[in-house]
Amino acid sequence: MSGPGAAVCFPVRTLPIVISIAESKPQKRLAFYESLRIIKHGTLRRFAVLFGARRVGKTTIMYQMIDTLICDGVSPKNIL
Question: pLDDT tens per residue, the chain (80 residues)?
């Protein structure tokens, strides 16, 4: 199934739970928006450092930022 109305069905015990594909994607958190704001600053050339405990989503935020930058027209060659 694909498309905006598509759903994935996971049977649990005897009752199926239906989760839309949009809900199954990781949600963007405050750290994503703050890091993206720093990176996209118009006059200052900066970098963002993501740090934190293990398994808290640092890599997920990085991949979300890369995806957003590519969708905004930044060349993948310009993303480190």
Answer: 555 655 555 555 555 666 666 666 778 889 999 989 988 888 887 788 889 999 999 999 999 999 999 999 989 998 88
Instruction: Determine the Cα–Cα distance for residues 12 and 17; give it in Å rounded to an integer.
Output: 7
Closest CA relative to residue 22, chosen from 39, 34, 5: 5
Write b or e for each residue in 21-55: b if 16 or more Cβ atoms lie within 10 A of its Cβ, otherwise e: eeeeeeeeeebbeebbeebeeeeeeeeeeeeeeee
Q: CB of 69 within 8 A of CB of 61?
A: no
Give the up-direction half-sphere exposure of residue 5: CA atoms within 13 A in the CB hemisphere: 0
Tell me if 61 sits within 8 A of 32, measured CB to CB: yes
Residue with tokens 């649990």: 12
Q: What is the pLDDT of residue 40?
A: 86
